[in-house]
Amino acid sequence: MSHKRIYASQRHKALPLPANREISALTKPQVYDKWAQDAAGIRAVERGDNVIAMFDVIGEDFWTGGGVTAKKVTAQLRAIGNRPVEVQINSAGGDMFEGIAIYNVLREHSQPITVKVMGMAASAASIIAMAGDDIQIGAASFIMIHNCWVMAMGNRHDLQETADYLAPFDQAMIDLYAARSGQSTADIAKWMDAETYMSGSQAIERGFANNLLSAEAMKTDAAAQAADRGFNDLRAMELSLVSSGNTRAEARERIEKLRTGNSSGADLIQPAASAGDFFGLAELLAELQRPL
């Protein structure tokens, strides 16, 4: 199936952002696990001076001090200037609302945007990918779409209020994916409900991408892979602890104590090249996620 490219003047309208960001729409721990298994360390072989690389979580990242943010992307676009832009993505997602903000920033760029999905564009990263006028994806890469996923606590009235709060954002994403792919909103909603992973060929068949990215354009960086997996364990463990009732601050403090034996956190962040050996939290994370 052939899908036309959507150029700057025809890009989908801006997506809504919440006026109140007290609620964060995140990526599930299981998505981080799949990314670590299938896509960690995948990088581009070449990078030009008009490239924005998104090989990180979406939103500010507590564990690395990095993360892809709308503020950073805006600065990068300003540096590139009035030229075509290439966006390289390998991300499990993160803060979905930050992903929406980045999508909105990219859609305002006046020149064509080429998105290359290297490894995975999941959750918030899949939203960003839809800003591309031309979307290329590796044959073994994935695009994953799902509904806004948050951590909420309270009685049934509190939870209903949260569900009502999230509904417009899910609908906005349905409309975006439908406009980009040409698929029906009913099918898009069904795929989001099912947390659907689309391989490269399936993403093209369904209109979420235009063509396959050459395998020669990608490589697996061993040091980056170790670092990606190490930090992934920390992020997934944090979310698992929050899911069990801890605040994010409490979760981070518990992980910090497990890692260092104290609460100072001074030696928490280590050189990326040794991250895979340094953290060693995968077994504990698996135990936390084991069904009761």
TrEMBL record:
Keyword Membrane in annotation: no
- A GO molecular-function term, please? ATPase binding
Alphabetical GO biological process terms: protein quality control for misfolded or incompletely synthesized proteins
Q: Spell out the Gene3D superfamilies in the cross-references.
A: 2-enoyl-CoA Hydratase, Chain A, domain 1
What does the UniProt keyword field contain? Cytoplasm, Hydrolase, Protease, Serine protease
One GO cellular component from the entry?
endopeptidase Clp complex
Instruction: State the family it belongs to.
Output: Belongs to the peptidase S14 family.
- PANTHER family attached here? ATP-DEPENDENT CLP PROTEASE PROTEOLYTIC SUBUNIT
The name under which this protein is listed is ATP-dependent Clp protease proteolytic subunit
